[in-house]
Give the backbone structure.
Amino acid sequence: MNNELSVSLVKKNTIDAGTHVGFSAFQKMIYMFFCVVLLVTCNSVYWVSVNTRNSQVITLILFLLLIVISLNSIVSTIHKRINLAPFVYFIFLWLIMVIPFVLMNVASGFFHVRQGLLFIFFPLLAALFINSLLQEGNLLDFVSLMVKAIVAIACLSLVMWVIALIGNRWTGSTMIDWGQIRYTPSLLGIQFQTQSVNLANMTLLRNTSFFAEAPMYSFVLTIGLLLKLFVVDKRVKVDSQNIIFVITILSTFSSTGIIVGTIAYAASYVVDKGNKALLFFVLAVPVVAFFVYWILRTKSQNDTYDSVSTRLEDLQVGFNAWRSKPLFGDGLDNSDALISRMSYSRTMLGGNSGFSSGLFNILAGGGIYQFAFSFLIPLIRVIWSKNNQNILFFLFFMVLMVFTMSDSSFLFFFIVTLAYFLPVAYTG
């Protein structure tokens, strides 16, 4: 029943439900490539390489793809007379908040070209594309493609991770700037050993795929799982994609990913099955809590990087930084406001001065003002839609952002932009 209702409401927003024919093979190829590049921008090893030209090339490729996609959306808008009302509404909400924020940071000297791409050009182009997908009834098809892209990366990483565990033979190395400048071994340039974990006196490699850290890879995987559970399927399924997500998240040994992923799956089950599933939820939470507690007690890494104490300190540091300037923050990319509040051992040469909370980074740098257009407004919109799946998706996304430093990634801005449109997709 829920599936039928979701499909009918999506088609309600199209010009003609009969025009929903999906994507051509060429469109699928372009969209899949766009999704992969979008994921690569989320603090992958390639993105945080000390060679800054890498991130510049990746950004260029991303925007070339997005421009091509947007031009196609403009053509569709003209030829098919697509309804632009949701797009115009987004532009109004976004720009009325962002432009004053941008001007304040420009005046303070904390605004650069990359911020212009992140806060203005990328969201506008992405919104044009998402609105076109929405009006043509293809929005869920695209989200499904994004999920498939993440699943493909997960499958590849699992194979490469097992090979690395068995052979422990690396074919190269890359220097990255993440927390501190360091070399990370690589296997064929697509699997990297950025972290290890000690469990029961055994040192194991954490599956980080091509990302700078295991929590970042877990973030991407959990985003894929959330999209699958709350946007694509709308009903609980135990299929191959969900199994791959679970296994791969476990292979990262990321406490955040394990907690959020398990509780999200339990929550989707409760929403799908109703009150009868409450017993399952009540039983599942203590089991997850015990499992995570065991991980936290037994997990010790070979340095302080990404340790539990560091993450807890970051929450306190971020809160204190935000409290000093709660309305507009200390300025975008003003890392001094955070570093000055960290423990001395982390600010010494070779220490881990990297920050780990995206949500508190937003509060510290942009205050409640940036928090409002990044989280509060889309949250109010999804709550107003009264769609439980939309609400759960965005709430879990916000929880992920508390423990993941990805607020300056294009993936983050794409998810936020998508959240602005989800209520339109399911309310008609």
User: Anything to note?
Assistant: The two ends are 17 Å apart (CA to CA). Residues 2-13+23-425 form one domain.
